[in-house]
């Protein structure tokens, strides 16, 4: 039972363009959502988060949008840079701090 | 400052052997988590320690898996009688005290290979 789903295993975007990574969830009790970035042979690093009381959070080139009615969130990266190439994980929690992760999306930024 | 550290970075073992994986969380972090990532999969929650409370073991896949956290700091994940399906990257994370400390800081992981 996959409560957090990232349906695109990979995404390729041209440098300078916008990258949009999507995530869907099924558990309506989730109230906090996070995006993590992972390089090979390293642990995931926190990127940006959003509480369920908001619908948008922005931090520099990164913006996360939350649509609670659709149980959908997305991460926008603009402009995309080569260093953004990594695997991106969406995660969610319901009160307790245990995180439920999606399967990840491998983003490749092409020069 | 020092991040979360894990040892060993790689472990190759034979089916049926026991293994111990170690995690040193960030100093002052009260919460500690273990996850694993199997090939092509997302991160799967295993166990969660918060201060002196009883750990949340709801993610442990079988009774061959156990974990301890001594002195509220270092944690050891033990897998007994390893099986090939235990092969994965085992990740430890810690988070600071506070009401909204969902941001978890991850270590580099231990890659476990069971032959």
Q: Could you characterize the architecture of this molecule?
A:
The complex is a heterodimer of chains A (111) and B (115). Chain A has 111 residues and is an all-beta fold. Chain A is 0% helix and 54% strand. Chain A is built from no helices and eleven strands. Chain A has strands spanning 4-5, 10-14, 19-25, 32-38, 45-51, 56-59, 62-67, 72-77, 86-93, 100-101, 105-110. In chain A, the strands form two sheets. In chain A, strands 2, 4, 5, 9, 10 and 11 form a six-stranded mixed β-sheet that branches. A five-stranded antiparallel β-sheet of chain A has the order 1-3-8-7-6, with no helix packed on it. In chain A, a hairpin with a 6-residue loop joins β4 (32-38) and β5. The model of chain A has no long low-confidence stretch (mean pLDDT 94). With 115 residues, chain B is an all-beta fold. Helices cover 0% and strands 46% of the residues of chain B. Chain B contains no helices and ten strands. Chain B has strands at 5-7, 10-13, 19-24, 31-37, 43-50, 65-69, 75-79, 88-95, 105-106, 110-114. In chain B, strands 2, 4, 5, 8, 9 and 10 form a six-stranded mixed β-sheet that branches. In chain B, β6 and β7 form a beta hairpin. Chain B is globular. Classes of the chains: A mainly beta (111), B mainly beta (115).
Concise overview:
Helix content of chain A is 0%, strand content 54%. Chain A has 111 residues and is an all-beta fold.
Detail the topology: elements first, then pairings.
The complex is a heterodimer of chains A (111) and B (115).
Chain A: E1 4-5, E2 10-14, E3 19-25, E4 32-38, E5 45-51, E6 56-59, E7 62-67, E8 72-77, E9 86-93, E10 100-101, E11 105-110
Parallel strand pairs in A: 2-11
Antiparallel strand pairs in A: 1-3, 3-8, 4-5, 4-9, 6-7, 7-8, 9-10, 9-11
Chain B: E1 5-7, E2 10-13, E3 19-24, E4 31-37, E5 43-50, E6 65-69, E7 75-79, E8 88-95, E9 105-106, E10 110-114
Parallel strand pairs in B: 2-10
Antiparallel strand pairs in B: 1-3, 3-7, 4-5, 4-8, 6-7, 8-9, 8-10
